[in-house]
């Protein structure tokens, strides 16, 4: 039983790394993506093939996976990031689907739809969560430095960002590469944890799920993304009812539409969750309660 | 600190498809002056700003900042050469605080690398300290310090204009372009704005190019004025000269 | 053989064109990709299936029924989701996200409420061949081709010759100016969604007859996005040309190379176009659009 929940926690950690990657792109830079499961797939298969065919040690292989994913990102980024309009979104869609179809159609290398098995299992709970913590710290630092602020400026108002000297195309590219690297890494970790890979692990539905987790957590909040991820990623494990997966997606869809229409900033908005912030809120809330209480008492008296 | 820049506009022409937005315009902005641009809507004033800041490419002619050509420069390159601007329809980073708006605009002063940011090296810490000081100083000088925690998009209109100007100023510009800063303001507010722009010029070594329709603002603060009409230069001179210029009077009376 | 494939390709392409024109129409007006487009395709396909199975085997009335339902759904989506966002002046990305949410709701609701299986239309038409120039051609392909052409010509007439069409063209050029000039922009947007929705509903029925109805068929709108980019994003004639090219090439690939390569080819084509000619075949180069 314990090992089952460790497994859930490990997978949650892996998908959280990918979600954080999407958060940088979608939440902080304001670029929409429909294909990040594709970048995970590139990272996963890149890692697995580097281990199986090039006989690289696992962590060197993960680097190969990350680089492959970044390369694919650079390709579509170079083509579309300087254009106005939805070209980038449509390109992410293409890269996501293309990757999956390529994997399915070259079975001699990737195992095709039947999957790729016998990948050495080299990751575990501790490795994944250590990496996750490092990623969170690094992203937090990134967002409080020049380049991260540039990303947010691009999201907020592109023309103004240019007018204060930000090279917006380069900034978008940087954000895309970071998100690809994180998704690629998550893919590699997934390969090293599961020991096998199937193309259906990386469908468009998975990409959509990554993006929606970010939106529900709050576009522009790392802690919001983490909280949403911790709740939503393991959700199918708690909900074991018939067609739970589909009901979950319906719920996601409805929540996303409601959030976007009524509270576009998501769960956390662009605020970060901090202990001092929580205390401040509680204090405010209590003093209000107290005042209401006194007022109520006064009326009664 | 940088010093105020000169700007020369030389035979500048801009066409959109077949429409001529600017037609063979030539004039000079001297270092340190406040230079006004006036003319009816559609006269090509904002087009000129967009050409200076690299949003548009000129069809013909040249633009020079301190003798260095601006043609072919991207927006961000123009900004890094020392040109800052505000927009006709305010473009703040609406969901960020006033403080974050300014700190974000300090890009130019930060030379540390991505890695420095990840590792929080000494270089990162020192430069971040410097821009924090610069931001604080600017906010205090402009009287926005008390509003620093407010979300920029929630501020009243007049304050948003001030934040936008403050954001332009932290980039340490040599040339500041103000696009209708007094738009939508009442008489009292425009009075304050005129004082404010004058105080900027006293506190910062910067050349200011300003577009506005409020003649009281333009006449009271500008050292020189250029008048546009249908994309062409109509007149140029001091406020006194412009007020008595017959071509200008005719264009303005004729159009209204 | 070749003529037969060409007709099949054109028929597939004309279905893509129905979707792509609606998509491009909305894009040209509002500058965002309507991911909720797939919901109208889905409702069209399932409505057609149930109509033919439960009511009467008449593809023409079935198509009309799907068309109306597709339009109603698109109008509802526009009023409930997009309109409040547009009124608020929300960022474009929120429109994309909302559309994505709706398409996910649609796809999964079908699985939950009906099932996840493929539903083949029980119509006599789908396997009936006819002989032209010695080639055996599916009657259904000819009907689809013809009906799509009629629908597209009607839209063309609407946009080029009517007052509403003039307003749409003006608004596509500049939405703000249009509203200043007294055009009721909210109503115009609704009309555009209704046109796009009815085309999508119609395409749903055709896709259903040709391939069956199934929950993830909304993803076929991806083909509309590809067509639109190939033809030039935002250009209506471009969308039609792109769709026909895509349909024919796809059919040829699956006939002469491998049917497994069909989708891979479509997405690869998109990436190639984005790399070498992002403004598409009929679009203008995008310089100077600040």
Major β-sheet of chain C, in short?
2 strands, antiparallel
Q: Provide the domain count of chain C.
A: 1
CATH architecture assignment name of the largest domain in chain A: Orthogonal Bundle
- How much beta of chain A, percentage-wise? under 5%
User: Regarding CATH, which class of the largest domain in chain A?
Assistant: Mainly Alpha
Which oligomerization state do the chains in this entry correspond to?
Answer: heterotrimer
Gross geometry of chain C: globular
Beta fraction of chain C: under 5%
Rounded mean pLDDT score of chain C: 88
Q: For the terminal residues of chain A, how far apart are their CA atoms?
A: 58 Å
Gyration radius of chain A, rounded: 21 Å
Secondary-structure blueprint:
The complex is a heterotrimer of chains A (301), B (256) and C (290).
Chain A: H1 2-28, H2 36-52, H3 58-80, H4 87-105, H5 107-110, H6 125-143, H7 146-156, H8 158-163, H9 168-194, H10 204-217, H11 222-232, H12 235-238, H13 244-262, H14 275-300
Helix pairs in contact in A: 1-6, 1-7, 1-9, 1-10, 1-11, 2-3, 2-4, 2-9, 3-4, 3-9, 7-9, 10-11, 10-13
Chain B: E1 7-16, E2 19-29, E3 34-38, H1 45-52, E4 60-65, E5 68-69, H2 75-80, E6 83-85, H3 98-104, H4 114-119, H5 122-142, H6 157-169, E7 175-179, H7 187-203, E8 207-211, H8 215-221, E9 224-229, E10 232-237, H9 239-244, H10 246-255
Parallel strand pairs in B: 3-8, 3-9, 6-7, 7-8
Antiparallel strand pairs in B: 1-2, 1-4, 4-5, 9-10
Helix pairs in contact in B: 3-6, 7-8
Chain C: H1 2-30, H2 37-55, H3 59-88, H4 92-113, E1 129-132, E2 135-138, H5 139-161, H6 163-173, H7 175-180, H8 185-211, H9 221-231, H10 236-256, H11 261-276
Tell me briefly what this model is:
The complex is a heterotrimer of chains A (301), B (256) and C (290). Chain A has 301 residues and is mainly α.
What report would you give on this structure?
- The complex is a heterotrimer of chains A (301), B (256) and C (290).
- By secondary structure, chain A is mostly helical.
- Chain A has helices at residues 2-28, 36-52, 58-80, 87-105, 107-110, 125-143, 146-156, 158-163, 168-194, 204-217, 222-232, 235-238, 244-262, 275-300.
- Chain A folds into 2 domains: 2-270, ABC transporter involved in vitamin B12 uptake, BtuC, CATH 1.10.3470; 275-301.
- In chain A, helix 1 (2-28) packs across helix 7.
- The longest helix of chain A has 27 residues, at 2-28.
- The termini of chain A are far apart.
- Chain B is of the alpha/beta class and 256 residues long.
- Chain B has 2 domains: 1-82 and 173-256, 3-Layer(aba) Sandwich (Rossmann fold); 92-172, no CATH class.
- Chain B contains 10 helices and 10 strands.
- A 6-stranded mixed beta sheet of chain B has the order 6-7-8-3-9-10, sandwiched between helices.
- In chain B, helix 7 runs parallel beside helix 8.
- Chain B starts with 6 loop residues before the first strand and ends with a helix.
- Chain C has 290 residues and is mainly α.
- Chain C has one domain.
- Chain C contains 11 helices and 2 strands, in the order ααααββααααααα.
- Classes of the chains: A mainly alpha (301), B alpha/beta (256), C mainly alpha (290).
- Chains in contact: A-B, A-C, B-C.
- At the A-C interface, helix 3, helix 4, helix 10 and helix 13 of A face helix 3, helix 4, helix 9 and helix 11 of C.
